[in-house]
Fold each of these.
Amino acid sequence: VSLKGYGLSQSNAVMLVDASGQCGTSTPLLAHRGLVWPQRPVASQGPGHFVAGLPVAGPVGASVAKLCWAPSWAYWSDFYLEVGPFAMVGPDQDRKFNCTFGIPCSFQLSGYGLEASSELWIIGGKRPVMASWKEASLKTSCASARQSDAADIAGFSNPSSPNSIAWPASAVHSL
């Protein structure tokens, strides 16, 4: 998260609260696995640059949370200033898809801010499958890949979970 403003300092901090919550009275939103709140600025990046981690799961949408700011942080009530809504880009999660051997596999993806150039990697058991979607319909066509191909797919790392979806680094968006 990058902020611009007057008088920002290394003592500042930011955190997310639920979209229905209030800055200064709510605890941090913990719905996005991989993000840690609150955060102070990254010293090497300057007082307006905050890194909360790499989100790997959680709700997506235009206003899934509120970003709150504190001039200095000791208590949740210090985060009294609402900077604005926080958006999370990505596919809707916790959906189930089924494919049958010998039959072309297709399914619809939904989510928020999906780009035509985005890709996802579906991992099931020992056979990763690369899929890309078409801009107009987001209809996905799957093609088989060998287990050894996983290390050769640019931008991906082998995830620790055998049944997960991994986004390439190029698909990670920041606000």
Amino acid sequence: NDTDAQFETLKSDEFPRFIQQLSPLVNNSVDNCVANITGNTNLSTAKTSIVTGLNNLDGSVTKVNTTVNNLDTSIDNIADNINTINTYLGVCKAAIEACSRQIA
């Protein structure tokens, strides 16, 4: 029978060669699988780092906004102080003018 002959050939010569050829493919598949798992783990770690970075950036932006708001308040306070000083200077000027008139 022809099929029996082919099977006998496969059993005697080809099968060990077939197994030899198959082994690297299986090993490569296993290696690729391990690499993918490692890659996914690295990707997950990278994602976590990016999320942490974005959260830190959000925190920094909030701090900058707070600082800008504080600066705005400080500028407003300085403006108020200048207005107050101007008012006092106006009062002093009026007093000096009154004194000058009395001296004259």
Amino acid sequence: SSGINAEYGDEIANNHPLHHNTVFSFLKQLFERSHEHLQELEQIEIRKMIIDRMVHLLCVGHVIPVIQYMRYCLDNESADKSLIRHFAAEVMEVTTSPYSKEFIAEFLPIAKNPDITASLRNINESDSISQFIEYCGG
């Protein structure tokens, strides 16, 4: 049922920009909800789906609050690093330069965190994370 609710959230986000905060609050509640009755892998998969919905919200204009929230999760270790890695990869897939100063200020600490992005980077730095860091001045 969370998947269906999240899809409704996408529709609301697409068609009603004034409700972005409401949709985002709902997604945060789902993300933070305890899923103790599920196995750990199932919990991760549910949270990945919720992150995908957050990235969709980012794509329709609710950029900074979504990035700030995931950075908060990283800084406070309140989410599995694999989830933040998934978020970083998805953000790099849907964004492109030029990046706003605010976006850089919020996303660069995630991008530069080796625990999060080391596995997303390649040796010749042709990957999107390395290119983003280079764009930001290293």
